[in-house]
Design a protein that fits this description.
The complex is a heterodimer. In chain A, a hairpin with a 2-residue loop joins strand 2 and strand 3. In chain A, strands 1-4 form a two-stranded antiparallel sheet. Chain A has a two-stranded antiparallel sheet with strand order 2-3. In chain A, 73% of the residues lie in helices and 2% in strands. Chain B is of the alpha/beta class. Chain B folds into 3 domains: 31 residues; 196 residues, Rossmann fold (3-Layer(aba) Sandwich); 126 residues, Response regulator (Rossmann fold, 3-Layer(aba) Sandwich), CATH 3.40.50. In chain B, 47% of the residues lie in helices and 19% in strands. Chain B is built from 13 helices and 15 strands. In chain B, helix 2 packs parallel to helix 12 and helix 5 packs parallel to helix 6. The chains are: A mainly alpha, B alpha/beta. Chains A and B meet through helix 1, helix 2, helix 10 and strand 4 of A and helix 1, helix 3 and helix 4 of B.
Chain lengths: 324, 388
Amino acid sequence: MTRIRIILIALGIAALVAAPIGQGNYIIYTLTSWLLFSISAMGLNLTLGYAGQVSLAQAGFMGIGAYVTALLTLAGVPWIAAALISITSCFAVGLLLGWPALRVQHHFLAFVTLAFNTLLFLVLRNEEEITGGSFGLVGMPRPSVFGIATDSNLNFYYFALACFLVSAFVMWWILRSPWGRAFKALRENPIRAESLGLKIRRQTLLAFAIGSAFGGLAGALQSPLVQFIEPGSFALIHSLKLLLMVVVGGAGFFFGPMLGAAVVILLPELLRFTEGYYLIIYSALVIVLMVFSPQGLIGLGQKLWNQFRPRHETRRDMKKGFQL
Amino acid sequence: MQNRVRTREEGNTMFRTLTASAATALALIAMPALAELKIGSIVELSGPGAAAGTNFRDGVRMGFEEINAAGGILGEQVAVTEYDSQTDPQVSRAMVQKAIDDGVVAITGTVFSSSTVVNMLVAKQAGIPQFTGSEAPSITAMNNPYIFRTAFGSQKGVPKMAKYMADEMGVKKVAVVWANTEFGKGGHESFLKEAEAHGFEIVADLPTEQAQTDFSADVVKLKGIEADAAFVYLTEEESARFLREARKQGVTLPLVGETTLIGHKVIELAGDAANGAMGHVGLTPDANIPAMTEMVEKFKAKFNYTPDHNAIKGYTAAYTIKCVAEMVGEADSQAIADKMHGLTLTVAECPGVLMDVSWDETGEMSRESFFVEVQDGKQVVKAILPPN
């Protein structure tokens, strides 16, 4: 990691710390939503961008995390324990679902995960004795950290920021580890990776389960943030939204999902002045982006950067990001 | 390391300067705006709730435009800001935060109960009264002193209707057709309770599936029994299919239901087959009340479509805010919320509410409602049911 990169990251963290100061509740809340979706999209990026598998169940995993956390914290269990259980259960469900599902890959995996997400939605809605059915669960307490309550939106933002930084660090560490390199290897050329002794199925399964666990953490944060959850918040459309975040930001780039989440959450807000047309404009922008830069915004940025500096050669493995 | 520390400090100073200048700018802008009274209209303008939300939004908009044209509230003009909840509770919560940051005195909306439940929590913390279009029973059962309905909860409809069936139609034996969903189960349970209270004999109990397309078997069963009436509790599209099948097989039994059996959407989908169906509706644009007819005509002229009950809810919410603010003499959130509990607003003192209405301590409301029959593709009011 170069010196300039460390300085840039330190600057970025400082900006995140300073961002909500002096802002209204609305901005702070929206920023917190962004952090939360970034965590989830980071997980999906591991599955999609690094291991090259299309998952349409990320919102479902957020749902598992959110419901587990909600039920446990409503029963008086501290948030941290509930969150750990959420993450573990998402990891376990990811393994269980991935085991048979990863026998099929790409589009077929997309169908299997799509079915899983729909099934989960139905279970959440129909098991009303446990999940509250379509009325959902309400009034989850916000956690206290070292005796400091996070009831105010500003405190909760810093709490979510801490979770975000920890997960970003964990993700960075995974990607740098031999595992992460193995993920990339099998995305680029599975046959070659296998011939070098990598167990493709085990690696993909791990990537899928770890990605799901990130979804679980995001869900564990969503429960106390919104203080209300219902099955509709974890339906298929939200999985597609998360997929859009990763693809728009740039699948296979570390900062792609964060940028993508910012675009998906903030752009509709910025375009709101156009009233009824904003969804149309927004979707048109996404289509144009996908046509001109399938590598997402970061890919587009790199293209432009390379125009400026023709000597800078792009790494081949970065260029071949996943395309939908 | 030193480099990094300095950068952060610089960033902070710059940020402080920025915030300070932004605050000054805001303060300057805010000065003339103080003369305005702000209302936040938080509704479903996109997503599955868009049809209901747009109606509600237009009702609120028309109400406040009329109020402004007549001189505003306590001499102040009303500025309505509209926020789109996207029928998503998480977004909806953000919008309530935004409205409260913007300094609204009261909030109108949302229509879908999942969003309302979230909004209530936030509005309660800020002490802002909220006039919701939701009819889910749970909303007024949460001990929230800032929530007020604009239409009574759905738990009040079935008892009113059962009473009419017993007293006016002389029903003794009744068949029940219901959707086996959360919505249907609620209606089914409360009807069975009422049936017991009024001494109805249940001669057939027919559950149906959600999104069922073929009702022929159910209708055949219904034809084979002797009953005075059938209670039909299905969602709109299923109701329309059921009515078509019943007409095809020549069912002569009176079919009685709720808004979901005789609503405008059902009449549109079922066509002639809807004629003869009866039911209870909380609000109807076809009610023979001059004020309501006038409101509906104005609405049609302004927005080019026929308003449904959600538009009327929004319209009356606007006038409720106006009348209550003028009663307490100030546009203060707390004062309005306090006054609302136990309040009765009559049309004489507040014509904009269209019908006499009262709220209890939980924010639940009572109002007269209508028993209607569909004739020639229109709801015709057969009786006005007293509030309960």
